[in-house]
């Protein structure tokens, strides 16, 4: 990959990947960082669904848990906890939105709102104040998703060291004291209970931070994309013509935050006519599948109404697909939809700045924009659409 191509990728990563995919006759092409991307939709779905590429442990967890069944049980337990606390999430979100200034800076505000709405679920109110303030700081400085610019990364790296040691300290203290019987007080109680004793406090801290990132970072950035896209595609002097649910689905299609997932090749093999060594990474881009012109009508358009039209749906995998699909997909969808509905409720929303080209780091996040929120006196129901 030449320097010029690398710069082009940085400037417009999605356009770059689309162009490479179009130019590749085999449906498989090289990414700037050397991995292979499967652009053809049929082959890409095969990579995510075929047992040959999806045996054993899920890449999401790395080696943090000892077995696939431990990964599955853990994912379900976290999902159930978040689902049980959705009423509290909704109330907190409404309160956090009511306290927002008339002009807010995004995407940072997205993660702050989601954090404020889940702070007690992540860490119960009387737990370690040191850990709570480290988590707050991580959200404020944007540690959750890797920053796109060098200077931002440097700032994040300077503050990051405090967070993991604070989690380890809390895990160690709780393991020593024992977790009280009854409902888990927070995510950390659930995690300590769900994981076998042989898992180190260090690995438990990594698991906790992984879920912190999924719950706050990925959800927060998805809220940001939904707002930006809906505002850029509607008239500023009227309310949105679509239910929040369609907006969120269409935003996750048009600009999926998890824009690339990878599977490792289990043994030397030929795929789409290209020979691969064991351990080579085959990447699949939900973005490319969501923009396949043979499977979607006018995929380049942001069109929430397509979600009401039968036969309008091509491959849709913002939460991946196959055996390693996101365990929290339904609750994440509900969290984003509730946040967008709360922001739009009794308010007129417009944006300044904003760009449809994402910053691509470990996720595809939107570039900075300002949200102008004018509250209206007229009552409008929090329109969430289908579930
Ligand atoms: C917008 C928010 C979210 C997005 C876009 C997202 C996306 C994903 C994706 C793409 C994967 C699979 C990666 C792969 O195929 O290798 C995944 C895995 C996972 N996600 Fe999410 N996620 C989100 C939120 C959440 C939330 C809120 C939770 C927990 C409540 C969660 C729990 C998990 C778990 C446990 C896995 C691993 C599943 C397994 O391998 O068994 N995610 N997520």
Kindly describe this structure.
The structure is a single chain. The chain has 14 helices and eleven strands. It has 387 residues and is an alpha+beta fold. It has a single domain, classed as Orthogonal Bundle (Cytochrome p450), CATH 1.10.630.10. α7 packs antiparallel against α9. The longest helix has 32 residues. The structure holds protoporphyrin IX containing FE (HEM). The site of protoporphyrin IX containing FE has 26 residues, from α4, α11 and α14.
Number of domains: 1
Overall strand count: 11
**What oligomeric arrangement do these chains adopt?**
single chain
Any idea what the radius of gyration is? Answer: 21 Å
How much helix is in the residues? 40-55%
The end-to-end span amounts to 44 Å
The poorly predicted ranges are none
CATH homologous superfamily grouping: Cytochrome P450
CATH C-level name: Mainly Alpha
The CATH level-2 architecture is identified as Orthogonal Bundle
State the helix count.
14
**Bound compounds:** protoporphyrin IX containing FE
Shape descriptor reads globular
**Structural class by SSE content:** alpha+beta
Spatial order of the strands forming the largest sheet: 1-2-7-4
Strand content: 5-15%
CATH topology category name: Cytochrome p450
Order of helices and strands: HHEEHHHEHHHHHHHEEEEHHEEEE
**Largest beta-sheet details:** 4 strands, mixed
Write the layout of secondary structure elements.
Elements: H1 3-11, H2 13-23, E1 28-30, E2 36-38, H3 41-49, H4 68-84, H5 86-98, E3 103-106, H6 108-122, H7 129-141, H8 150-159, H9 163-177, H10 187-194, H11 201-232, H12 244-254, E4 261-264, E5 269-271, E6 274-276, E7 281-284, H13 286-290, H14 329-344, E8 347-353, E9 359-360, E10 364-365, E11 369-375
Parallel strand pairs: 2-7
Antiparallel strand pairs: 1-2, 3-11, 4-7, 5-6, 8-11, 9-10
The protein binds protoporphyrin IX containing FE.
């Amino acid at each position: 990959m030449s320097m010029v191509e690398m710069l082009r990728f940085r400037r417009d990563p999605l356009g770059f990947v689309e162009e490479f995919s179009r130019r590749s006759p085999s449906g498989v092409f090289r990414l700037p960082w050397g991995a292979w991307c499967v652009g053809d939709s049929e082959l890409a779905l095969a990579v995510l669904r075929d047992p040959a590429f999806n045996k054993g442990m899920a890449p999401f967890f790395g080696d943090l848990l000892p077995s696939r069944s431990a990964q599955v049980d853990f994912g379900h337990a976290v999902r159930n906890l978040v689902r049980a606390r959705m009423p509290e999430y909704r109330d907190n979100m409404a309160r956090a939105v009511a306290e927002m200034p008339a002009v807010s800076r995004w995407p940072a505000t997205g993660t702050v709102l989601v954090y404020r709405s889940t702070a007690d679920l992540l860490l119960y109110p009387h737990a370690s104040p040191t850990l709570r303030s480290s988590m707050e700081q991580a959200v404020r400085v944007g540690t959750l998703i890797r920053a796109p610019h060098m200077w931002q990364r440097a700032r994040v790296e300077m503050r990051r060291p405090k967070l993991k040691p604070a989690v380890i300290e809390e895990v160690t203290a709780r393991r020593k004291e024992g977790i009280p019987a009854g409902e888990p007080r927070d995510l950390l109680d659930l995690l300590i209970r769900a994981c076998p004793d042989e898992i180190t406090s260090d690995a438990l801290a990594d698991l906790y931070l992984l879920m912190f990132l999924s719950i706050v970072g990925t959800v927060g950035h998805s809220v940001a994309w939904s707002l930006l896209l809906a505002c850029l595609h509607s008239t500023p002097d009227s309310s949105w013509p679509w239910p929040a649910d369609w907006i969120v689905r269409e935003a996750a299609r048009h600009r999926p935050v998890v824009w690339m997932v990878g599977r490792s090749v289990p043994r030397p093999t030929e795929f789409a006519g290209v020979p691969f060594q064991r351990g080579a990474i085959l990447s699949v881009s939900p973005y490319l599948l969501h923009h396949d012109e043979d499977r979607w009508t006018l995929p380049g358009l942001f069109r929430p109404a397509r979600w009401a039209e039968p036969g309008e749906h091509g491959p849709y995998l913002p939460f991946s697909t196959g055996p390693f699909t996101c365990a929290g997909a339904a609750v994440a969808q509900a969290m984003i939809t509730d946040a967008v509905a709360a922001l739009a409720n009794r308010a007129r929303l417009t944006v300044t700045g904003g760009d449809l080209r994402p910053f691509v780091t470990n996720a595809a996040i939107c570039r900075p924009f300002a949200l102008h929120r004018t509250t209206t006196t007229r009552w409008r129901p929090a329109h969430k659409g289908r579930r």
